[in-house]
Amino acid sequence: MSGMLFTCPHIVFLSQSTLTGMSQLCGTRLCHEIAHAWFGLAIAARDWTEEWLSEGFATHLEDVFWAKAQQLAPHEAREQQKLRACLRWHRLQDEVQNSPEEMQVLRPNKEKTGHVSDSGSSVIRHGLNPEKVFMQVHYLKGYFLLQFLAKTLGEDTYFSFLRKFVHTFHGQLILSQDFLQMLLENIPEEKRPELSVGNIFRDWLESSGIPQGIFLTQGLSTGLQHCRQILNHLSHRRSLLLRDISKYKDRST
Ligand SMILES: [Zn+2]
């Protein structure tokens, strides 16, 4: 959940600051919070260190909801999602370069995830670290993992599985393996070459840095090209604007 919004079942509370800014930003924030009705509320992480189970899913679903809300045609939705993937990719690169490695791991407690100590308490690492509040690694890496799974298995297969998953686990607290095990059990082996819970833990959830699977995500390279074109276009427009401003200044002095 972002600091600006708070949701509880069937109700979304919005602060005024959420509704400022461009409609695009406002709409995607709303979609993100609506997605938390399923991931974060109806189904939540059993161990708080696995924050990606709320934030990764909400970030992945926010694009799907936002495309529906705008009534985009499938090809327009794909274009928009590619562009958003590209922006998130830049953000992730930036965060990975500027944060301590141990804070880039989505399942930091590994096989001890979900365990409670003898005293009955469970310790949340970095829970009080103020830096973590501003980090989006859990949102971004979680999002890219789900995007990777959806692309690898096929979006129709993935989303029909997701409906089944929500139905099965509604009202429960889960660990990463609950989701991954059920996903892989539901997909015939020939459709998921080299995908196993162990591999996903190793490559995506228990390592720092950028998972290599991101590069295999179909469409990310074309998305990056698209993004680069837009950035070039914007920087060209900026230089023209600056030139016009300096001309105007020369004239007025
Ligand atoms: Zn959130």
Provide tags for this entry.
253 residues; mainly alpha; Neutral Protease, domain 2; two-stranded parallel ribbon; 10 helices; binds zinc ion; AOPep; Peptidase M1 membrane alanine aminopeptidase domain-containing protein; Peptidase_M1_dom; metalloaminopeptidase activity
Write a brief caption for the model.
The protein is 58% helix and 6% strand. With 253 residues, the protein is mainly alpha-helical.
Structure explained in plain terms:
- The chain has 253 residues and is mainly alpha-helical.
- The protein has a single domain (5-108, 131-248), classed as Neutral Protease, domain 2, CATH 1.10.390.10.
- It is 58% helix and 6% strand.
- The chain has ten helices and four strands.
- It has helices at 23-35, 52-69, 74-97, 130-133, 137-153, 155-169, 176-185, 197-205, 213-216, 220-252, and strands at residues 5-8, 11-14, 43-45, 172-174.
- The strands form two sheets. The chain has a two-stranded antiparallel ribbon. The chain has a two-stranded parallel sheet with strand order 3-4.
- A hairpin with a 2-residue loop joins β1 (5-8) and β2.
- α3 (74-97) packs across α10.
- The relative contact order is 0.12.
- The structure holds zinc ion.
- Zinc ion binds at residues 1-2, 32, 36, 55, 58.
